[in-house]
From TrEMBL:
InterPro entries: LeuE-type. One of its GO terms (molecular function) is homoserine transmembrane transporter activity. It is found in: Cell membrane. It is a multi-pass membrane protein. GO terms for cellular component: plasma membrane. This is LysE family translocator.
Length: 205
């Protein structure tokens, strides 16, 4: 396992994106346990992209403009939906106790987190370019090697996202006890999701 792979993986996973934003929002509104569920869902959402890369299906998105556009705009639409949901008091930043979040919303948080990452074609394109760089051309068993690298990347993603969730949960009481701060927090997160959706909309192969 090369240091280059670990450093690159850390930079990619720690960089703010849709998964990080959703984990932070969940930690702020529902507490640490729910943020761990969000981190798990975001990590799970990576699996299809890695599977597509390893099986060579990612080449379809890379070579087919139509497939990429369909996948891309599905992701944009979902990000806009998440932004709209975030603005509502019953949406992404709905304030709940950790017990309520655990009992009522774990499945919903997981599904949302998974979809946020699945509906991002940039991840598939990224892994298509990323993983092969760390597999030697004379590797006797490239698939097991790529699975090993993928497992390390996913573990790093989960650990880093849990860290983000812990930070969000630590300041949670200071946010939810101030209605004006919570309102602006909803607007900020909604705006961030819209911005990420717009960035994705202008992404080309």
């Amino acid at each position: 396992m090369g240091i280059e792979f670990l450093v690159t993986s850390f930079i990619v996973t720690a960089s703010p994106g849709t998964g990080v934003l959703y984990t932070l929002a969940t930690g702020l509104s529902r507490g640490f346990r729910a943020s761990v569920v969000a981190a798990f869902g975001c990590t799970l959402g990576i699996v299809p992209h890695m599977a597509a890369t390893i099986m060579g299906l990612a080449a379809l998105l890379h070579t087919s403009a139509l497939a990429f556009q369909i996948f891309k705009y599905a992701g944009v639409a979902y990000l806009l939906y998440v932004a709209w949901s975030t603005l509502r008091e019953s949406g992404t930043l709905k304030v709940e106790t950790e017990g309520e979040a655990e009992a009522q919303s774990a499945a919903k948080v997981t599904v949302t987190a998974v979809l946020i990452n699945i509906l991002n074609p940039k991840l598939t394109i990224f892994f298509l370019a990323f993983l092969p760089q760390f597999v030697s051309t004379d590797e006797a068993h490239p698939v097991p090697r790529m699975l090993e690298l993928s497992a390390v990347f996913m573990l790093m993603t989960f650990v880093i996202f849990v860290g983000y969730g812990l930070l969000a949960a630590a300041v949670r009481d200071h946010v939810i006890s101030r209605p004006k701060v919570l309102t602006w927090m909803r607007r900020t997160f909604a705006g961030a999701f819209v911005a990420l959706g717009a960035k994705l909309a202008f992404t080309n192969i």
